[in-house]
Amino acid sequence: MFILTEGVAKVFLKKDFDSEQTQVGQIGPGQFFGEMSLVLGEARNATVSAATDCKLYKIQKEAMSELFERDPALLEYIAGIIDTRKRQNRSLAEQSLKTEDEGKVSMILQRIQNFFSIGH
After folding, report:
1. Is residue 120 part of a domain?
2. Structurally, how many domains does the chain consist of?
């Protein structure tokens, strides 16, 4: 996971395997990306490219685990961000939900807890 501290980066998605990437947003200082791969172990589904010179902090799983232990509310915050981004990505890519519960904060929260072995 990366936290942007300076600069601007563009976010791109593909609608499907054969399509070209489409810019769907941009991020600036204080925003982050790569959280789905870090906390869920999922393959990335977006490409982030620097639009200007950027400075980033890289957060790895071990550091995130310590943060989750110190501040359990961070789990819910990250799960909420992931839920929002997954919904936006689905809408932008015009994909349908696989199941009724997919993307709900509670399920994402459970997946993060399982991935980090929290509460086991």
Report:
1. no
2. 1
- List the end-to-end C-alpha distance of the chain, in Å, as a whole number: 24
Q: How confident is the model at residue 96 (pLDDT cuts 50, 70, 90)?
A: very low
* pTM (two decimals): 0.70
Write out the residue range of the structural domain in which residue 82 sits: 2-54+61-115
DSSP track, 28-88: -TT-EE-HHHHHH-PPP--EEEESS--EEEE--HHHHHHHHHH-THHHHHHHHHHHHHHHH
| pLDDT for 20 | 81
**What 3-state class would DSSP assign to 10?**
strand
Question: Is residue 100 scored above 60 in pLDDT?
Answer: no
For residue 64, count other CB atoms closer than 10 A to its CB. 20
The 3-state DSSP class for residue 14 equals strand
Residue 114: per-residue pLDDT: 87
Residue 107 placed within a domain: yes
